[in-house]
Amino acid sequence: xxxxxxxxxxxxxxxxxxxxxxxxxxxxxxxxxxxxxxxxxxxxxxxxxxxxxxxxxxxxxxxxxxxxxxxxxxxxxxxxxxxxxxxxxxxxxxxxxxxxxxxxxxxxxxxxxx
Length: 114
Description:
- This protein is an all-alpha fold.
- The protein folds into 2 domains: about 1-65, no CATH class; about 70-114, no CATH class.
- The protein has helices at about 10-15, 20-30, 50-60, 80-95.
- The longest helix has 18 residues, at about 80-95.
- The protein starts with 7 loop residues before the first helix and ends in a 17-residue tail after the last helix.
């Protein structure tokens, strides 16, 4: 997670969004307490939504009670078969590696040992 999905250069530009992170933390605690909480995370283009999510993921990734799954869909080709394959590859990566290491070996489902 630290180097692949949230490199130091991105972390260096993350500033002053503790209020939003606190709201995400409160929502997560409510989910963990068994309350269903839906929320919408929207903002104008290039306002920092992705950096906020990456910072939040960095903070919670070590919690064994949470299954983190992050995919930048803009990096996935739009052809349905390739999109599905790549999305599933990312899912396998997150389930097995939990954001550690590099995801490249998971990016082709045919290469996986199961």
